[in-house]
Amino acid sequence: MNFRATRRGFLQRAACMGLVSFLPLRAEENISGANSLRAYADARGLLIGCAVAPEKLRDEAQYAHTVAEQENLLVAENAMKWHAVHPAPDKYDFAPADSILAFADAHRQRVRGHNLCWHEGLPDWFQSIVTKNNARQILTEHIRAVAGHFAGKLHSWDVVNEALNLKDGRPDGLRKSPWLELAGPDYIDLAFHTAREADPRAQLAYNDYGIELDYPEDALKREKLLDMVRGMKKRNVPIDAVGIQSHLTAGVKAPGDGLREFVRKLHDMGLQVFITELDISDHKVQGTMAERDAAVAHLYGDYLRTMLAEPNVTAVLTWGITGKYTWLNHQNPRSDGQPQRCLPFDAEYKPTPAFFAVRNALTGASQHLL
Ligand code: XIL
């Protein structure tokens, strides 16, 4: 056993426990305080955050500690979706979502809302109750109740999520979602107007995926999204930002120039860009853990360096914080059964190389004023 390594390890553990305070940590090992992601983001007027689950903030000290230490922005992974806050037609339950706001308040963090209108995450009652006759009214009432409940407290809302699906074959690119079919294509305008009335202070975002890469289908979806947003601006629909989900895969294809151009076009339309759900799946990477980590970290670095050079990119959120709880363990499970290493922390809450790639990218970010 290497004596120096052992001694250093012992002293570092002691230092973490507050037993000794003199041991200088190597810069890349120290991730607390001034070395945390949030300190790096704060220094540049940026928001850095992650999706969280309220019960884990409550029940798991290490989870709560890591989220509090590293992030200045939170979003509910599921706790603000329709099924969570609107369990019966005449019943709302805000308790779990409220506990996220209380946590954020205690740790000087902002919170964003996700989401007010989506074709998934709907409660069981939706199908039997919602018809062409009442869909617009039910959508409006939900947004009034939910955005109204959190009014004045949120950084932003994903007002409409994933409304585009080119495979559905419509010229406007709109997804044939229950909302489109029951409420009509202007349900998007309706949702944004209602959200603005219910919470004039939250920034209102349209959020989508499949727009990140230089594949022809991603490029076409970016075009449809720009057309949609242009139309909204022309009709004076209140939209402030576009959320780019950014569920990426290591070892497949890196984002190219198309995304940068897209972000610049949004800038010219006066819109901010939030990277809302960043994670990098390693299910296609064979090899050792170090090789997986390197591929994931490389893409984090590339992606964020490109995005953060754009002055209208003002917030970055990862979809979770630890490989212990990522949705990708179900969505894209690894064939070797290992947990994904797709986030800034691994399943043991050790920072992954991706953590350091994110932190490095933050140093190169253009200066923002929050
Ligand atoms: C996912 C959650 O991570 C899962 O826990 C849940 O079972 C399904 O939804 N795009 C979105 C998110 O906008 O709301 C989704 O979150 C992931 C894809």
What does this structure look like?
By secondary structure, the protein is of the alpha/beta class. It has a domain at about 35-155 and about 245-250 and about 260-365: Glycosidases (TIM Barrel, Alpha-Beta Barrel), CATH 3.20.20. The protein has 15 helices and nine strands. The protein has helices at about 5-15, 35-45, 55-60, 60-70, 80-85, 95-105, 125-130, 135-150, 180-185, 185-200, 215-235, 255-270, 290-310, 330, 355-365; strands at about 45-50, 75, 110-115, 155-160, 205-210, 240-245, 245-250, 270-280, 315-320. Strands 1-2-3-4-5-6-8-9 form an eight-stranded parallel barrel, surrounded by five helices. Helix 8 (about 135-150) runs parallel beside helix 10, helix 11 (about 215-235) packs parallel to helix 12 (about 255-270) and helix 13 (about 290-310) packs parallel to helix 15. Residues about 1-25 have low confidence and may be disordered. The site of (3S,4R)-3-hydroxy-2-oxopiperidin-4-yl beta-D-xylopyranoside (XIL) has 6 residues, from loops.
Keywords:
globular; 370 residues; 9 strands; alpha/beta; 14% strand; TIM Barrel; 8-stranded parallel beta barrel
Brief account:
The protein has 370 residues and is of the alpha/beta class. The protein contains 15 helices and nine strands. The protein has a domain of 232 residues: TIM Barrel, CATH 3.20.20.
**Taking all residues together, what is the mean pLDDT?**
92
Question: Roughly what fraction of the amino acids lie in strands?
Answer: 5-15%
Spatial strand order of the main sheet: 1-2-3-4-5-6-8-9
CATH topology of the domain at 36-157 and 245-252 and 262-363: TIM Barrel
How many DSSP H or I helices? 15
Name the CATH superfamily assignment of the domain at 36-157 and 245-252 and 262-363: Glycosidases
The helicity comes to 40-55%
Measure the end-to-end span.
49 Å
CATH architecture of the domain at 36-157 and 245-252 and 262-363: Alpha-Beta Barrel
Radius of gyration in whole Å, from Cα?
21 Å
Report the CATH C-level class of the domain at 36-157 and 245-252 and 262-363. Alpha Beta
Structural class: alpha/beta
Main beta sheet: 8 strands, parallel, barrel
Low-confidence stretches: 1-25
Number of strands: 9
What is the H/E string? HHEHHEHHEHHEHHEHEEHEHEHH
Shape designation: globular
